[in-house]
Design a protein that fits this description.
The complex is a heterodimer of chains A (306) and B (275). By secondary structure, chain A is α/β, with parallel strands linked by helices. Helix content of chain A is 47%, strand content 11%. Classes of the chains: A alpha/beta (306), B alpha/beta (275).
């Protein structure tokens, strides 16, 4: 993926942030009501698995837990070869090497959160160092958090510079920039933060850390997708999108995919351009696939945890 | 003074602690009753009910036996308080009054059993060695109930109470006759401290919904007492897919502790003797 950084002021002037709240929420709600026919549903469920970042970000994570989640990521349904692997496993930096060891050769990426996740309230050099270490430990993707304190006090340049520096520190690793939308306060701010991240060279923009009760929602995702679309129109640079947090059911996952397809088009329907961050979504998707195949409703007890 | 307009009642199903029309928006008129519309449940209503029952099950089972008993007793109190309404719905004859009395008795009777069935259905097993083994009854989980249509109220009571007493949760498929008494029972459950999702009452075509209920992999037992003969074989075959417990009582389940044995699992634990 070719990404470059652009001067922040140019981008913010060219793409003003004025969101019609009612329209955004209505459009997201309307798209969520689309009825999806059986074959499309199976395609969407398969895609949802291929685009999933299976996530464990707990204080209680152990190498053992990470090991088991990596196995689940490679073989979501071990007895069913038709079920694909997920896109990546998302862990804390200290768990990257364990995950890398298990996932070696599987094609499943290791994503590491960094920059003092989830608050981002630390010193710049420590955040950069964390990114470098995570990358050295084998992370293919870095999920950084923006400095919301700086953003909310109007120091947009600081937010931008930090992302540029983190991008540099990432080296060959892909950079996902977490906006933590629940703390930004308004759709206008979410769009502005999206544009800052895109201008600074983010490969992906991501809604949330998953650590707050308010996480990804459809209207917020729509606003971010439109920021990606407008930025791509203006500059030709295409970035990816990752809604994360609170996505627990296959139905929700399909709604996000509909939103994506309607806003950015089918070229974005690939794990290279779209990810779903989730910890408990996978089993529900597997359950729905089984329901579509067998015609009877399924039970959670038939699928492994983690 | 002019008499006020009549307030006509909208009958609703009871799913996950809420009164709902069918998700599908459909309704039906029972045979011979052209002036009432009752909700015609869909497979998605059924799915929602099973999900609610599954979610409520572990907490319901972990309540103390005494607490479950109190709640069942409360159901009896509430039925008793509205017995005239029930009697009128059932047909208004003396035998209908008797059916309401029997319903109250049923809930009181099973309320008493919640802390006693373990002693009757469980055992200390005789073993030839220096240890104990205990066999303890545990709830099987989510039970789908097709109650016998011959007694619309008592049928529900006799088949629901034993399932709740042992810590199971239930999804009742009440059929598409005049199901007002079953729907009123939903209102009783809602005012009896029964936690949401523990008992769910759907109305609608048994022919349409039973295949979904019997094939549902998250249902652990199914009471086919009210299943019409032509549907029975298919329902049992579907139930075999996840080895559901299948049982029927006809015409109506008796007042017997052994009815509770239908929806329990026997867990045997081993314990060494002190020396």
């Amino acid at each position: 993926m070719v990404t470059t950084t652009l001067p922040l002021s140019d981008v913010l002037v060219a793409l003003p942030a004025r969101i019609d709240t009612v329209a955004a929420e209505e459009r997201a709600a309307a798209l969520a009501k689309r009825s999806i026919k059986k074959e499309s549903k199976l395609f969407a469920l398969d895609l949802a698995i291929r685009c999933m970042d299976l996530t464990t970000l707990e204080g209680a994570d152990t190498p053992g837990k990470v090991h088991s989640i990596c196995l689940k990521a490679m073989h979501p349904a071990p007895n069913d070869p038709a079920i694909p692997s997920v896109a990546a496993v998302c862990v804390y930096p200290s768990m990257v090497s364990h995950a890398k060891e298990v996932l070696k050769g599987s094609g499943v990426h290791v994503a590491s959160v960094a920059t003092s996740f989830p608050s981002g309230q630390s010193f710049r050099d420590i955040k950069i160092r964390e990114v470098e270490e995570a990358q050295r430990a084998g992370a293919d993707e870095i999920d950084m958090v923006i400095d919301r304190g700086a953003f909310l006090s109007g120091r947009l340049d600081e937010v931008y510079e930090e992302i540029v520096q983190v991008k540099e520190a990432c080296g060959s690793a892909h950079l996902k920039v977490i906006l933590e939308t629940a703390e930004l306060g308004s759709y206008d701010n979410i769009r502005k933060a999206s544009l800052i991240a895109l201008a600074a060279g983010a490969d992906f923009i991501k809604t949330s850390t998953g650590k707050l009760t308010q996480a990804a929602t459809l209207p917020i995702t729509l606003v971010m997708l439109e920021a990606i679309r407008d930025y791509a129109w203006k500059t030709g640079i295409r970035a990816g999108m990752k809604p994360a947090g609170g996505i627990k059911t296959a139905k929700q996952a399909i709604q996000y995919l509909v939103l994506l397809n309607e806003t950015l088009g089918s070229e974005w329907l690939t794990p290279a351009m779209f990810r779903l961050g989730a910890s408990s979504l996978l089993n529900d998707v597997l359950m729905q696939i089984e329901k579509e195949r067998t015609g009877s409703y399924f039970a959670a007890e038939y699928f492994s945890e983690a | 003074m002019t008499p006020r307009l009549a307030v006509r009642k909208t009958y609703k199903m009871y799913i996950n602690g809420a009164f709902v029309r069918s998700e599908s928006g459909r309704s039906y008129r029972p045979e011979g009753n052209a002036d009432m519309n009752l909700p015609l449940g869909s497979r998605k209503d059924l799915r929602d009910a099973v999900r609610a029952a599954r979610q409520a099950q572990s907490k319901w089972a972990s309540l103390t036996a005494m607490n479950r008993g109190q709640i069942l007793y409360r159901i009896a109190e509430m039925v008793d308080a509205r017995r005239d309404e029930f009697q009128e719905m059932l047909g208004g004859k003396p035998r209908h009054a008797q059916e309401v009395e029997d319903t109250v008795t049923t809930f009181v009777w099973y309320a008493g059993w919640t802390d006693k069935f373990q002693a009757v259905l469980g055992t200390v097993d005789p073993v030839a060695g220096p240890y104990f083994t205990f066999t303890l009854p545990e709830p099987t989980g989510v039970v789908g109930i097709v109650p016998p249509p011959s007694h619309s109220l008592l049928g529900c009571a006799r088949h629901l109470a034993p399932v709740l007493a042992t810590g199971n949760t239930a999804v009742i498929l009440a059929g598409d006759a005049d199901t007002r008494p079953q729907l009123l029972l939903g209102e009783i459950l809602a005012t009896s401290d029964v936690p949401q999702g523990v008992a769910n009452i759907l109305t609608g075509s048994v022919k349409e919904l039973l295949p979904w209920l019997s094939a549902h992999m998250d249902v652990n037992a199914i009471d086919l007492s009210g299943c019409p003969e032509p549907l029975l074989a298919d329902a049992e075959r579907n139930a075999a897919e996840n080895v559901k417990r299948v049982y029927r009582f006809q015409p109506v389940a008796p007042l017997s502790p052994y009815v509770m044995a239908e929806a329990i699992e026997a867990k045997t634990v081993w314990h060494p003797l002190a020396r």
